[in-house]
Amino acid sequence: MPEHAAASRLWFSGLCFLLQILLILLFAALVRYSPEGSPEPCPPQLNCSQRSQDPNFLQPRFQDVHVQLLLSFGLLVAFLSRYGPGSAAIIILITAFSVQWAVLMQGMLFFFLSGKISVGAQSMVSADFCTAAVLISTGAVLGRVSPVQMLLLALLEVTLCTLHEFILLRLMGVSDSGGSLTVHTFGAYFGLMVSRVLYQPHKDKRKREEQQDKGHHKDVFAVVGTIYLWIFWPSFTSTTTVHHDGENWAVLNSYFSLVASTVSTFILSPVLYEESTPRMVQLQDATLAAMAVMGMAGEMLLTPFGALIAGFLVGLITPLGFRFFTPVLHSKLKIQDTCGVHNTHGLPGVLGALLGTLLTLLATADTFGYRLELVFPLVTQGSRTVTDQALIQLSALPLTLLLATLGGCITGTILKIKVPRCCADTQYKESPGLQEVKLGIVGKKGFFGSQAAAGVGYFPPAPSSCSSI
Fold first, then answer.
1. pLDDT tens digits, residue range 22-38?
2. Per-residue pLDDT tens for 215-225?
3. Rounded CA gap, 133 and 187, in Å?
4. Is the predicted pLDDT of residue 442 greater than 70, yes or no?
5. Of 319, 327, 214, 341, whose CA–CA distance to 268 is shortest?
6. CA 409 → CA 76, 94, 342, 401, distances in Å?
7. Are 64 and 117 in contact (CB under 8 A)?
8. CA-angle at 341, arms to 278 and 308, nearest 5°
9. For the chain, how big is the Rg over CA atoms in Å?
10. What gap in Å lies between CA 388 and CA 110, rounded to an integer?
């Protein structure tokens, strides 16, 4: 009914209004500019020594990270043939909300000084990393949740992601500058668990497959998104390295992993999919996986050939996962992974954590030099041995999986609560508000006032008895 659709739109608009007003009030009461860029010494409460505080170093990289969030992630979800423009718009909304909420949540644990949250380039980078985990999770449920549910997902996941990061980085002393665990693994398995809780079998299997088809006409989005990944991913991996001089290792390792993963895609994809050359979405997946595997190991002594090996292997594992493991996720585990985040973020993040653990075990003062104190300060201080640090790095993996699955289960259960004015049987169907519709030939006085029009356009769905919101 039209009145139901209007009420749903008002519900979504009202929620956005209330959340933004709440954020403004919280910022007014708690947030102040950070003293880290001032000439005075950085207050010890902020623990500024763990990361480079040079504004000339952080600010350009913050811009790179932020551009990647908006362009790379926004375009990467637009390649799906039914969810292009609508999903990109929702990604921008989730980014805008999550960054604000992450500044508050992370500020309470990481940047709290004299009763106020200190905000600067460093805190903004941390907020962007947390937002990246949220965007990864939305890729698992894209098209099957409404914008209201996505906002609630972002609200809950930012909170849990911040708690998870505090446990790993501050309490346990884990080294994970590029986010193999805190971003990629946590975001992927959080989203997959939400997808599992929200799972409902479709009556028309063919229709479901058609709606999630990655058509060739959408490869243009994958082209642009992949190019931006090539440009900005190394900055993303190296932004939070512990020292300016340590940046080179992270950048170089990221590039070597990226190029090897791309080449391995050309090796395996033609065999699996009987195509002469891989499609751009497959190169996009290889690019994402190559960076995820470098999250923890990027700033360590991986060596160039080691980075090539890691990128080559993860470039083989990703298409194999899409070909063989994704069908098992859906048929056996009842998990619908819209954008394939398990193969592009989850598995590579797990492999990156294992690789980082191995490199930690091999770390010595002779091989790392002065970087050993920057990457593993507790080891050089004598608080723990290299073996202890390696065991802690390894134990962070099952802890991440546990927190991600529990958090995703709780979030999915909350999202299953019936949204007002929504029917129970259509609450979790593919959200038509995120879809494109193909337009056939229109009559003499068609939509555009011309004799005929054909193509693809984005229009809201016709009102029904229950809106997608």
1. 999 999 999 998 775 44
2. 444 567 777 77
3. 4
4. no
5. 319
6. 26, 20, 16, 12
7. no
8. 60
9. 23
10. 25
